[in-house]
Structure prediction request, 216 residues.
Amino acid sequence: MKYFLCPVIFFMLMVSCSTVVKPVTPPLISEPVLIMGRGNIPVNSLAFFLIKQNPKLNLFYAAGIARIYTEEAALEGVNGDVAFSQMCLETGYLKFGGTVTPDQNNFCGLGTVSGDVPGERFETIRDGIRAHIQHLKAYGSTLDLVNPCIDRRFHYVKRGIAPTIFDLAGRWAANPEYGGILKSILERLYDYDKSVRHITLPRQGPGSILIFVVPH
Prediction:
């Protein structure tokens, strides 16, 4: 017995087999932006974005910061894109220059209540980032922490009082435009990710010398 494919079915099969699935680009940030949730930007894009704003940074150092932010935020259910963007704002893309110095491992200005108070100090980079994530979770959620609390100012926050970045204005920072500034950084980050997401980070080997041009 012979079987024949209907021309319409044959055409549909050919189209389905040849269809190219395009990668999904994260949508432009829209209001409100929740503090709790899942980040969309991969580690390599975060690192490249940081280097673009601060070319003096070592790429491997920037990638390490980005990786820890991604890990710690995911663990606590905090939006890693928001946390990373806030770090960029608070430290001037790790240029610092204010009362907080790089050796404090304080990436969000914890405890800097005035220009004369340098704020909290943490033993390691991961501890500093973990404290930042925990402090954001205090504002954005009433859920318990996954890790033991190392944010010494955690209990000063009324839990869940700021579910969006716009609610941080007047609370995390006095500037009423604080949320809008964060949103602007997030939008630039998402836009930049479109051009670098496909680029992998170079590997670091013993005695390696990094010569790398960050895409613009």
Remarks:
- The chain has one domain: 33-196.
- Residues 8 and 116 are 76 Å apart (CA to CA).
- The two ends are 63 Å apart (CA to CA).
- Residues 33-196 form a domain with the Lysozyme fold (CATH 1.10.530.10).
